[in-house]
Structures are given as structure tokens and as C-alpha cells.
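Worked example 3. Consider a protein that binds S-adenosyl-L-homocysteine.
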Amino acid sequence: MKLDTLRPLQGAGKRLYVETYGCQMNVGDSEILVSILQDEGYRYTENISEADVILVNTCSIRDNAEQRIWGRLKEFQRYKKKNPKLIVGIVGCMAERLREKLLSESPIVDVVAGPDSYRDMPRLLELAAAGSHGVNVQLSEEETYGEIRPVRLDRNGVSAFIAIMRGCNNFCSYCVVPYTRGRERSRDPQTIEAEAHELFDAGYREVTLLGQNVNSYKWEADGAEVDFPELIDRIAAISPMLRVRFATSHPKDLSDRLIDVMASRPNVCKAIHLPAQSGSDTMLKAMNRKYTRQWYMERINAIRSRIPECSITTDLIAGFCGETEEDHRQTLSLMREVGYDSAYMFKYSLRPGTQADRIMHDDVPEEEKLHRLNEIIALQNELSLDSNRRDIGKTFEVLIEGKSKRNEAQLCGRTSQNKMVVFDSDGSLEAGDYTTVKIEDCTSATLFGTIIAR
Ligand code: SAH
Ligand code: SF4
Ligand code: F3S
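Given these inputs, the predicted complex is written out as C-alpha cells:
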């Protein structure tokens, strides 16, 4: 595998350690940060105890995400004691949300930088090195870091994420993202294509196009327009050997054209993550999701009729403001009606400043939220197992990601539907190869099979 066309790690100056929380957007942003800082001579390290600068890329999506980071900041105190010159920077969504509060509440924080101010990071770190605080939480309407070549930090060498847009305009009433990441903006398609090309040439075989609502991707220049179906078609055209995935789709913007592009391109993976959040129309309205259950089911049926083998996964929130037992039953019935292949499931967590915080009541008792969440999880386990059982006896093309974690003699990889498959190695295959596997057994989380042909 040749990795030499990717941007190498370099730099001989201060040692930079980065810890990343939250979604894939944050993972991508950390790679942009390292890229910007190594141009200034900083040297990336994975060893926190030798760091001159620690950056924590943070998440605010639920209260427990923030609590974890507060806990981490306490732990950093001992590094600061050992090395008083150590600089600690909080970046990302929690930095944007809490701003100077981070400086006043934690004695060890030197720098606070929001998601749109990473180009300013060298200056902010210099301010901190000179003994003052560096703060920049300005959000931008244009910043996409489009031309910055990220340094790939988590390289398995097979699959990579490419951010195609930033921000969100949807203002779902429970959600903090529009406040922490600002307005939605799309990245220049040429830089996206160039990045995908570069990854493919370096041996990568899968790219996931990322945004909070990829279906509303839109780039206009010189009278021409590129929308999401067009973009995905272009990326898929790079090579039939390059798999293309995307996340996340907002149901209200999932177009028939996108479904058509997915159906017509074998290398666009047959997997759609379509967060429903709730099965109750009353809750969907309160959440400001802008679709009804009927509309959502119509989109599901459109996918199923054009791409019968497509997997459908979702996000669900239990115990949102005003949710009754009947609303909750509606969520369970939606889950059965769709038959989700898998789901991310959460208890509602009030986020300060959101619509829900300002005009609704977080009135479902904690234990009731937990009870409902547990019912949702139990049902999804059944549905995931059903879904995997339906695959027994079928064959799938699998893109190998590497050795199985549990057994070195086995390989693991994913189907187009994004299901993990574990199978015995034949000795000749390695990460980045495609192979065909017949499924023989499963759990609710994993398929097990045997290679049948190459
Ligand atoms: N943009 C994506 C979601 C990003 S956040 C989309 O709209 O699909 C990922 C998930 O976190 C959401 O889909 C939602 O299910 C969950 N989430 C967001 N805010 C939350 C909150 N305040 N409490 C609990 N879960 C939340
Ligand atoms: Fe949050 Fe809704 Fe935007 Fe997703 S679409 S990031 S849930 S506001
Ligand atoms: Fe968290 Fe920000 Fe992502 S709040 S989920 S890191 S966009």
C-alpha cells in the first residue's frame, strides 16, 4: 500500500497532543488542526506526557459528553504541575458554547477556540505561550477549510471521512449543533474531489462524505450548480473500486434523485442513515423536524422500492419534552414498521439555549426516560438480530479493514450495507482488498461467514 502521496506528519518544534470527542466532524477537524499547526513547526505526538500543547476537541451534544470533558480537564492538572509551561486548549463545540466560562471554571485552560477559528490557532497558542489567554469563538459564514489537506491521524489505510459541508440550519428544537457550528455552508466540490482522488491513490477504498445534513449540499459558482446527488455521482466516478458512503441525511431533504444515483452506481454503498428521532407526530412537531411519520414512511418506501437491499439505520431520542407513554409506543411501532438494521439511541438531554430549553418543559422524569430508552434498546437488539439473520445464506462483497480484533487468524470488513463481517483469512488477503463472503452465522452486531471466491 502506498501512503506516500498523503500528507506526512512532520515538524520539529513543540510537541502537540490532540484528544478528540464527539462526531466524525470533530475527528476531521482535529486532522485539519494538526495540519495547520505542523505548518508552523509543531510536531504531533500520541504521547500526552511529552506534550508541550494539549488540545481537546470537544462535544456538547448531550450533557454527559460535556461532563466527561470536565472530568478530563481535572486529570490534566497533573501534567500542568509537572510542566508549568504546558498549554491546554479547548476547541470545538463545547469551546464555542461555553467560551470564557471555560477559562473561569478551569484554572488550567489557556486557549479557547471554536470550530471556525482553527486558522487562528498559531496566534492563539503564541498568546498563551506569552502568558495570556487565547480566545477566538467567532463563527464564520464561509469557512470550510476547503483547501487544507488534513493529516490522516486514524489511518487504517482503507476508509476515510471527507467533510463536505459545515454547520446546520435546521434548528431541531433539542439540538445544540446550529449554535456551536453556526450556519450551513458547502465546500468547493473540486477540493472534495481532489481529496477523494488523493485518498484513492494512497490505497484507500472507501470514503464517507460527511455533513450534518448532506442532502442540502449545494455549491454555486459561475452559474453552475452542484447538488448532493451530482457530487456523489462525481466521487463515485473516480473508480468503481472506491466505495462511497455518506452521513447524515435529514429525512425532509432525501430526494428521489439521490436514491436514483445510489441505485445506478454499484460503488455507492447501499446504506442510508435516516434519523427519525421519534415515531410520534406530536413529538416530531415539537422537535421541529419538519416531517410527519407518514412522510418519513413514504421516504422509506421510496428507498425500499428502488433499492430493496439497502440497509436503513436511525437515531432515536427517548423522553423528549412532553413525551407521553403513547408517543413512546409510537416510536416502538415505527421501529417495527421500518425494521431498522441498527440504531443510535439516546435519552433526551436538555441543552441550554435551544428552543426546547427556552419554550418547553423537560418534564419526563429521569427514570422514565431511562425505562423508555431501555425498551427502545431491547427492541432494536431484536430487530438487529432479525436483520442479520435474514443475511444468513446470502453472499456479500466485503471490503477488508484488517484483522479481527478477537482472533488474529480472522479478517473483518464491511458489506455495502455497512454490516461488520468476520471470516477466516485465506492467507493472501489484506486490508483494502475486496472478497466475497457467504454468511453462515450472526449475532445482533456481527455477521460470520466464509470466503467463497476471489
Ligand atoms: N445532523 C444529524 C445529527 C447529529 S447529532 C441529524 O440531524 O441526523 C446525532 C444525534 O444525537 C441526533 O440525531 C439525535 O438523535 C441526538 N441528539 C441531538 N441532540 C440531542 C439531545 N439534546 N439529547 C439527546 N440526543 C440528542
Ligand atoms: Fe441537530 Fe437537527 Fe441539525 Fe441534526 S439536523 S445537527 S439534529 S439541528
Ligand atoms: Fe458533538 Fe459538535 Fe459533533 S456537539 S456531535 S462534536 S457537531
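Take a moment to read the result before moving on. The domain at 159-389 is CATH 3.80.30.20 (pyruvate-formate lyase- activating enzyme). Residues 164 and 187 are 5 Å apart (CA to CA).
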